[in-house]
Amino acid sequence: xxxxxxxxxxxxxxxxxxxxxxxxxxxxxxxxxxxxxxxxxxxxxxxxxxxxxxxxxxxxxxxxxxxxxxxxxxxx
Length: 76
Description:
Blueprint: E1 5-11, E2 15-20, E3 25-29, H1 45-48, E4 52-54, E5 57-59, E6 65-66, H2 68-74
Antiparallel strand pairs: 1-2, 2-3, 4-5, 5-6
């Protein structure tokens, strides 16, 4: 099992700075998802900036979330 999210901070250009349970801090680019289904809603910066850690992953105020394994494996 990959590490889980302990903290998340929205950054410019639709990126997230994510801290994982193993102490690693990585950047996750949300831009590739912004054209897909419900993720289109995240183009609204106030919604994008509402992201919070949630049960080892992340969640926005409208309920959209991402798999914690995707976050860890696709972050740089």
